[in-house]
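Support request, please re-run this one:
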Amino acid sequence: MLTQDMHETIRGLYQGILEPRAWQRSLSALCDITGSAQATLLVRDTERGGLQVRQTASRLPDDLAMQNLHEGTARSLTFPDRLQVGGWHIHRPDPGFTAMRSLYAHDDFADMAIASTMTCLVDRQPGQELYLTLQRPAGAEGFLEDDARALDWVIPHVRDAVTMRDRTQATATHGHVSANLLNQLPFGVIVFANSGQVLLANAAGEPWIRRLLPTHQDVAPDSVLPGGSGWRLSRPFPDVMRTLTDPIAMQAAGAIHAVGSDGRVAQIVAMRLTPGIVLASAWEGQPVLVAIHEAHAAPRATPAVLRDLYGLTPAETRLAALLITGLGLPEATTQLGIKRETGRSQLKAIFVKTSTSTQAQLAHLLTRLGGLVAEPASA
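Re-run finished. Output below.
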């Protein structure tokens, strides 16, 4: 039956995945179980020979514990080359090592000099090894093989807890870096589940959550968001969502043109995330990625750039400008007063000249291009 100290040791190890100080409580409980003055988790650099302390717990005062760790542990520990993972090594220092007592400022702690050390190789990875070391003070019975065998239960827990903590830290670091990168983007990014739930949004995209889905409950009303209300969309966003998440429709992307009451314009491109993307496997349904590019004025330089970069004719430029607002080809040809067959021919020519194959790709290209070359609002 596990004792209270054993329970505390195991519980502290797994709590330490998210709370580093819990490892210290766990190692303190291990000191109580083994009669040790100090318990330490060490990482050894097998290429350079250096030691790094992951966590330590000691019965000594803090300053003496650190002094003992750096001066005593380094001299008392040995690392046999053939030690197997899970194997223990017991070391008794030579009699001269008791001179360590003179390092302590108070004679009260003279009996805390280390007399015996027991070290276990917890895990071995390329370039490094993880050790658990226990040290008993002078005057206490030295470690025996039975002491090592009695602690075999703790090693798998130490290994699992350290592995899970390292993975958790790596994931948290990756998420933190990813969030910072997203927030530095000059355009909005939102990922919606097919239910309308927001799976991800950067700072520039958050104000658009309720603008796209007015009934969304995850953000404050649009009236208190930067820019206020009054945005008019060329197409209702829920309609775009339904089309993109419909497995029968097979539409990969859609575009929306938005105009604000203050004269700002925005181009919104929504596209399905493919099943191979991690987000798609993390939530049920079909996630949709939305990119929002805002500008303070219409990109008046775009027609000239389209002509110079892609060789579009004035008629093709006019058709492309309407298509990126979210209009379909039939509506665009009606507004331009041209035949549908003429519109199809012009669209084919646009696709060839711009190396695109769908209206969504064309909309994304022209939106990004317009944002880059648009003249300042004060021009």
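The first helix runs from residue 4 to 15. The chain has a mean pLDDT of 76.
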